Amino acid sequence: MTRTGTITMSMRELDRLKVIEAVAESRLMTWRAAERLGLSRRQVERLVIRYRAEGAAGLVSQRRGVRSNHQLPQTVLDRALELIHERYADFGPTLACEKLRECHGLVLSKETVRHLMTDAGLWVPRKQRGCN
């Protein structure tokens, strides 16, 4: 474990590191660490094993930098935005969503279309519209 480098950790992960270090050095009992971290004793044991094998990097969330399971492919979003620009730029998000579904077979939620239109500057939310 003589690797050197920079590890990005959240404050929660830093707190977890301190507790797991204490367990690994036998300064803290597993059950008390589990209580403190809000985990099961077995999970604390798993973290200690991973800490001993990989060091502090083993306690960093392994989901960091990984795409969401429900994220739509960028090609679908690009196609939807292209169609909205070409044909439905003056529509609201709800109607644009319905037209994308009916005419083009693109099934997106109204909220996804609203986000696309807002980010592209085609739609201004009601709260941001001025009285002018």
Rg (C-alpha, Å): 24 Å
Number of domains: 2
* Estimated structural class: mainly alpha
- Low-confidence blocks of residues: none
| Gross morphology | elongated
- State the major sheet: none
Amount of helix: 55-70%
What portion of the residues fall into strands of 2 or more residues? Answer: under 5%
Number of helices: 6
Q: Helix-strand pattern, N to C? A: HHHHHH
Distance between the termini: 64 Å
Rounded mean pLDDT is 90
Tell me how many strands there are. 0
Protein name: Homeodomain-like domain-containing protein
InterPro entries: Homeodomain-like_sf
Keywords: DNA-binding, Homeobox
GO molecular function: DNA binding
What does this structure look like?
α1 (11-24) runs antiparallel to α2 (30-37), α4 (74-87) packs across α6 (110-120) and α5 (93-104) packs across α6. The protein starts with 10 loop residues before the first helix and ends in a 12-residue tail after the last helix. It is mostly helical and 132 residues long. It folds into two domains: 11-59; 74-124. The protein is built from six helices and no strands. Keywords: DNA-binding, Homeobox. This is Homeodomain-like domain-containing protein. GO terms for molecular function: DNA binding. It comes from Caballeronia arationis. InterPro entries: Homeodomain-like_sf.
